[in-house]
Amino acid sequence: MNQLLNIFLVPGVLLITFMLICLFRLMAGPTVPDRVVALDTINTLVVAGMILLGAAFEEVIYIDVAIVYALLSYIATLYIAKYIERRAKK
Fold first, then answer.
1. Are 26 and 41 in contact (CB under 8 A)?
2. Average pLDDT, the chain
3. DSSP tag of 30
4. For the segment 46-56, what is each residue's pLDDT rounded down to a tens digit?
5. Which parts of the chain are beta strand (E)?
């Protein structure tokens, strides 16, 4: 079990590193679309992290939650894009 967690440690650290890079872009993004893309990328990395946890601990519930979270993230991104489009037309 310990060796199995060591295998998943490197991808987990990489995911966290990529999330921190995206968090910097989210805070310092010059435009709203840049921030939306950074937030969407963070959501995708969170889904990948949940799937990684599900594989590491051999629990299916993490993968089920990741699927629901990905769907909600996609819907939220669509609503944000629609809001930005309406605001740009004014």
1. no
2. 90
3. S
4. 999 999 999 88
5. none
